[in-house]
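Bumping my old thread because nobody answered last time. Still need a sequence for this structure:
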């Protein structure tokens, strides 16, 4: 059985973000199920109408999660026992809006959301539209890093590096998002304030991952 050397390669890659993702949550509640659902429908309609006015397509906002639940409080009665008090139906609608990164477009979207009646909870992320290039760059970096480590170890040990036997890599999704945190207070989202936007340059996206490589070890080198 041939001797082997196992090395973990660390791959790194960076790129500039070119895509913006708005993640939004709308919440509606009422003591009656029908009214809670009706209110939820009005909220999403208000949001879609506001975004349409600044040029977004009607189907630009996508649903990522929709949940209806009952809400209860616990209170003590006169005897000191806890009882559940029904507080109504809660409809939670999680949404996503994606578009190419442009500060003017970003400001328009923020103003539209601020003006609509639904007032969703909002978070903003800067990412890339197509992750293929940065993923490939990271994998090539991991392979080069592992081979260089293996060559150094074999050279230092007086043996030669043989043929590659195996590669082990976990093909999970990477978090390809800039660390830039872009947030504004609700009162600062009013249209007059958002008319003037500050140009920002989001931090580059850094991706790191590992892969394990197994090589055969050749004959000991002779001096």
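Sorry it took so long. Here it is:
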């Amino acid at each position: 059985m041939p001797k082997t050397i196992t090395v973990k390669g660390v791959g790194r890659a960076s790129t500039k973000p070119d895509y913006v993702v708005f993640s939004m949550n709308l919440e509606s509640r009422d003591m009656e199920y029908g009214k809670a659902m009706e209110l939820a429908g009005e909220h999403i309609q208000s949001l879609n109408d506001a975004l349409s006015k600044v040029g977004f397509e009607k189907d630009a906002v996508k649903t990522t999660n929709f949940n209806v639940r009952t809400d209860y409080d616990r209170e003590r009665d006169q005897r000191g026992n806890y009882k559940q008090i029904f507080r109504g139906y809660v409809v939670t609608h999680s949404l996503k809006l994606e578009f190419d990164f442009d500060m003017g477009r970003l400001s328009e979207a923020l103003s539209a959301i601020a003006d609509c009646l639904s007032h969703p909870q909002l978070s903003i992320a800067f990412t890339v539209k197509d992750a293929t290039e940065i993923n490939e760059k990271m994998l090539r970096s991991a392979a080069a890093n592992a081979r260089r480590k293996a060559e150094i170890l074999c050279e230092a040990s007086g043996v030669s590096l043989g043929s590659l036997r195996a590669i082990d890599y976990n093909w999970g999704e990477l978090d390809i998002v800039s660390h830039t945190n872009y947030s504004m207070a609700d009162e600062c989202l009013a249209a007059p304030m958002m008319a003037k936007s500050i140009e920002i340059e989001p931090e580059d996206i850094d991706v790191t991952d590992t892969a394990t490589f197994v090589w055969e070890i050749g004959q000991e080198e002779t001096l």
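The radius of gyration is 27 Å. Let me know if any region looks off to you.
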